[in-house]
Structures are given as C-alpha cells and as structure tokens.
Design a protein that fits this description.
alpha/beta; Rossmann fold; Alpha-Beta Plaits; 2 domains; four-stranded antiparallel sheet; 14 strands; about 40% helix; globular; binds adenosine-5'-diphosphate; binds magnesium ion
Amino acid sequence: MPGAIYAEGLVKTFGDVRALDGVDLDVPEGTVLGLLGPNGAGKTTTVRVLTTLLRPDSGKAVVAGIDVLKHPNEVRRAIGLSGQFAAVDEYLTGRENLQMVGQLYQMKAKAAKARAEELLERFNLSDAADRTAKTYSGGMRRRLDLAAALVVSPPVMFMDEPTTGLDPRNRQQLWGIIQELVAGGTTLLLTTQYLEEADHLAHDICVVDHGKVIARGTSDQLKARTGGERVEVVVHERDQIAGASEVLAAFGKGETTVEHHTRKLTVPVSGGAKLLAEVIRELDGRGIEIDDIGLRRPTLDDVFISLTGHAAERTTDENGDGEPVADAKGRKAARKEKAQ
Ligand SMILES: Nc1ncnc2c1ncn2[C@@H]1O[C@H](COP(=O)(O)OP(=O)(O)O)[C@@H](O)[C@H]1O
Ligand SMILES: [Mg+2]
C-alpha cells in the first residue's frame, strides 16, 4: 500500500536540463519527509509535479490515494501548498489575504475571520494585519504565505523551503507549528537546504541532487554515514596547516578537509567536548596558534561530501530565484563526465 505521498520514476526535463531524473518517493501517512538538497537539485520541480502544477515527462504520482496525473482537481482539494515564492495578494492586507483563502475553501465568513485572527497572532503578524501585503518585508510575506497554507488543514501538505528567509525566532516558531500539524495527523513533504531543519522535523530524509535521490534514511542514519560531529579549526598562520592536519588526523575518524584560503581544517570525530579539549592541548603543545576552534554537527555539505566525494555545487542561484543558466552548464558538464 503506497503512502500518502507516492512517486515512482518521475522525470522532467527543461530543454537541456534534466530537473528530475527518476525520482521515487513514498511517504507514510502522518509522517514528514524532508527533501534535502542544494539549489537546483530538483526540489521545487518535485513539489510542483506532486501538487499538480507541472506535468512530468514520465513517471507516476499518487497523493492522498489519488492519481495526480489522472485526477489533478481532486488532488488539489486534498492538499495544501506553501510555495518557495510567497504567493500572497499584494493589494490585500494580511488579514484580507487569510480571510480570502478561508472563503475560497468555503468557510463561513465568521469562521474565516476567526481563523485569520488566530493565524495572524501565531505568525506574529497581528500588528501588520491591516497593512497591504506589498508593504511587508520578505520574511513577513513568507510568514503570511505559510499562514495562508494553514487556513484549512488538509490531510497532505507540501512546504517548499518554508523557513528560507526567516530569522531564527520565526524559524523556531514555524518548527513548532509544523510539529503541531504533524501531531494532528497531517502528512508533510518539506523541502529544505538545511540538514538541521530536516533533522528537526522529518521522520525520513531523501537527499536529492541533479534530479535524483542519492540517499535516503533517518537523520541518524545519514549522519552516521557522514561520521557524525566535526572538529573545525582555523589556524593563525597558513604554514601551520600541515601540523594541524597531522594532529586532526590522529584524533579524527575520517578524512580531514582543508580550506587553504580560510586556513580552516575540518575532521569528523566522535567523543565530543572531551575530545575537543584534547585536540586543543595537542595543538597548543606543538605551538600551533589557533584563531578559532569548535565542535559542530554535520551540515548538508558534509553529507554531500561523504555521499558524492564533492561539496554541494554552489550555483549563482544562491537566493533560489530559479536562475537556470549556471545550472544548465553544470548539468552539461556532469553529463559529459558520465559519458567518459
Ligand atoms: N521552468 C523551468 N525552466 C527551465 N529550467 C528549469 C525550470 N524549472 C526548474 N528548472 C531547472 O531545473 C533544475 C531543478 O530546479 P528546481 O526544482 O527549482 O531545484 P531546487 O528547488 O532544488 O532548487 C534546475 O537546474 C533549474 O534551473
Ligand atoms: Mg526550489
């Protein structure tokens, strides 16, 4: 029995770009799937296909038990979507935007009003409720868009990078809201560029790159594959990199990565704070001066390095504006490599 969100072999090309290259997903009812990947990985395209906004070239998708390609209208009634690009009406106030959504879903005017009020409060928009959305900051729009997606609570929800552009406080708050939603039985597919976020919210994680799922598992499983925590050291002088590298190699559980221009060395470790203290003593004993040292949890980049042997490609699309040029080039290069 497929889950509440199911996809098999989704392929979607845009000209030269293979945005989806055979994506398979299966999200059990009442759980959260984190679709984790860098810019251009195919996250938004996956969400657009599953939410009926885009037809794939091939493949199969079933959402809430309904075939997405055969019955898109029925699927639309069963899902909620918060897009990567806030879809609010600029000329309406925050309050009006939310009430309008309620009315679109055939809520009674009074109920729509009460729900709008509650969401404005929850998303810290009460003070700005009667201003038109075009006066809102990016973060405020983002919150309004999320609030709009929550006016009704559909059984299946999609959130595309819901916290991109939010400050830490609003991010935390949104995490809380998402957790409540899921506790209430909602199935959620969430895309993110942050392992930390997927870690916090998702039962299962699919790591995507170049339109393919390159790894799946729980956060713990993925982290185990990356070797867990890291010690990160910035040495004071470039000529101390070699010495520091030797020290880290002795304490590390995997390969040390070195970033010469920032004089930063990173190595996966186990042993936490105690080990960190030992590393500091050893560096000090060898007279290696450090500018900064710390223990940190793996990032998406670490997951990538351990899965693919290289860092997640950084394209010019750092702000997620969908700029395809640099990416199309990257993809062409990748295909060439494969062909060789
Ligand atoms: N409408 C489109 N036209 C051309 N290329 C597109 C279009 N939408 C997405 N792409 C390309 O498909 C790839 C995947 O994009 P997307 O799904 O938006 O990635 P993500 O959301 O993971 O950043 C990228 O290379 C992107 O540039
Ligand atoms: Mg996207």
